[in-house]
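Contributing: when you submit paired examples, paste them exactly as shown. First protein:
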Amino acid sequence: MTRLGEPGFLLPERKERIDRAVESRTRTLTVVLEAFCDPQNVNAVLRTCEAFGVQEIHVVEGPMKPYDRNRKISQNADKWLDVVRWTSTADCLAHLKGRGFTVYATWLGEGSAGIGDLSFAGPVALVFGNENRGVSAEARAGADRTYAIPMRGLVQSLNVSVAAAVSLYHAMGRREAERGRHGDLADDEARALKERFYLLAVKQRSRIARAEQAGARKVRRAARTRPG
């Protein structure tokens, strides 16, 4: 019996790429997106999270338009991720703290640490707030620390997707220095995630193949009906 990942189902190059990605995956670094106004920003941050190996993301939906996937913005990154939806910031942070996470919330106010002062030796959740108001008072109260990205120009803040990218890049470097590695899935979980990704990749390849076949049939029909 031919299995997923063998020739005819999953190209060896694709399988190798998936295996490398899973080796760098983690669930001990996560991101919380709180009440974003623009769903496109959520999709942009999801793309960033996937690029940095963050497997689990938490979305606290606010009163504005709820999060909806946008393949053009996310580049289909969300299909490789576990996106957990919440209606309450307090419930989300309580859940994460119950799992042993330290919570760091982005905040430009007085008393915030610089991102370089934070430790990433243990499980960490980074909270990014609404594009206009920042993180809520509820998020600040539930955070173990607030932090800011040092700015050297005249602007006071970064776009939230850029702030997430800068924060995750720094976090990955600190984790490698403090923990010895960034990816840290247990062997059983890594195997299960690989099988899940293999299946997703096979489905994607099948869709592409069907689209190519449909295009070829359309060209052949057009050729048969062409005069002369």
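Second protein:
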Amino acid sequence: MFQFKSIQEILEFAITKEQAARKLYAHLAESLTDPMVRKLFSDLALEEVDHRQQLELELMKLGRVVPESNPFKGACVTECTLSDEIPPAIGYAEALVLAMQKEKAAFRLYVEMVGAAENLECRDVLLVLAEEEVRHMLRFEQAYNFLMNRT
């Protein structure tokens, strides 16, 4: 497992994950026709942009420059390759399940990293990131349950 030695590394990693999530959610928002599901993905894509900007601000507060390239390419970042991960005719329920799985995986990753963190400050940052992922997962679960009860 990748182990972070600084808050800077955690923030750069999280920025990369936010970019990948935004890409996925924006693609799903464009691909789906159900207005409720489309709005959910569109809203979450915008939230991911906001989260990325917040993380970049925290990085700048540390006196660091936001890297233009991904320093974690090939590491344990799950970049979204849309053609491989999303079937061309994905349904609403399948899109929500995919999103739930991605958020759950991100949550688990951050929780595992908490145990591997070298200092308390890094653990605290990772816990905040894990909490954000679980909030997204719950939103997708609520939308999925609503969609299933609606049909």
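If you have annotations for the second protein, write them as plain sentences, like these:
DSSP finds five helices and no strands in the chain.
The chain has one domain: 7-150.
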